[in-house]
Amino acid sequence: MILYRTVRVIAAMYFRTILKLRIEGAEHVPVDGPLLLVMNHQSHLDPLLVNTYCPRLVFTMTKSSAFRNRLMRWIEPRVGAFPTRRYQVDPQSVRVALRFLSEGKAVGIFPEGERSWDAQLNPLRPGTVRLLLKAGVPVIPCGISGTYEAWPRWGRMKWFTMGPARPRVTIRYGKPLHFGKNDDRATREAALPEATKQVEEAILALMTG
User: Fold this and answer.
1) Which residue from 38, 63, 51 is spatially nearest to 11, judged by alpha carbons?
2) Which of 56, 68, 54 lies closest to 31 in space, CA to CA?
3) What domains appear along the chain, each with residue ranges and CATH number?
């Protein structure tokens, strides 16, 4: 992952020049072992910032359309991204996520499944919560605020804005959530409503500070 680490260093310097960036709760991210990082999704900036500043290298589920051309198909896996089909269950992406976790890696997921239209948290997709329940690893909630204002859906980012007018962005990590390993479908379905509620509440609290 030499390219990934190099990009992180360069991106970290760049984003500090165009954003007023604040990162809180990084101590809640375990330094080793498998984990699932679950984040709200307001902007194209979200995966870029999390993959740059998270204390761990994060292998992030990314919409399959980001892999359409040959260049991006080469780059994306080398900076921690792996494809998933949106709006449907994608068994292949689930298998890849579970394989990364079995190797002790950190996997990042946006459980809303798409960017927010209004900076509010969208309902979480049940398939994502089922994955959390099946994986049985620590779940780190992450709330991101300010990226919608910096680069809203259908809007544009002023990439070279500097000085006091720089957008203010905060990334907050919360304490790990533990759901246990739920191997059979019936157990996962029974645990689904409460797990969804816990994850939603944790992300919302971190978004609002």
Assistant:
1) 51
2) 56
3) 2-208 (3.40.1130.10)
Length of the chain: 209
Partners of 173 in beta bridges: 142
Determine contact, residues 145/170, Cβ cutoff 8 Å.
yes
- Separation CA 111–CA 128 (nearest Å): 6
Radius of gyration of the chain (CA): 16
Which of 136, 143, 124, 138 is CA-nearest to residue 193?
Answer: 124
CB 132 within 8 A of CB 98: no
Q: Are strands 106-109 and 58-63 parallel, antiparallel or unpaired?
A: parallel
> pLDDT tens, position by position, for the chain (209 residues)?
788 889 899 999 999 888 999 999 999 999 999 999 999 999 989 999 999 999 999 999 887 777 688 877 787 878 788 878 776 677 888 899 999 999 999 999 999 998 999 999 999 999 999 999 999 999 999 999 999 988 888 776 655 555 567 889 999 999 999 999 998 999 999 999 999 999 999 999 999 97
Tokens describing residue 157: 């980012």
- Furthest-apart CA atoms within the chain: distance in Å: 54
Give the integer Cα–Cα distance in Å for 191 and 122.
Answer: 20
C-alpha angle with apex 5: 12 to 61, nearest 5 degrees?
A: 90
Spatial separation of the C-alpha atoms in residues 139 and 35, rounded to whole Å: 6
Which DSSP category does 26 fall into? G
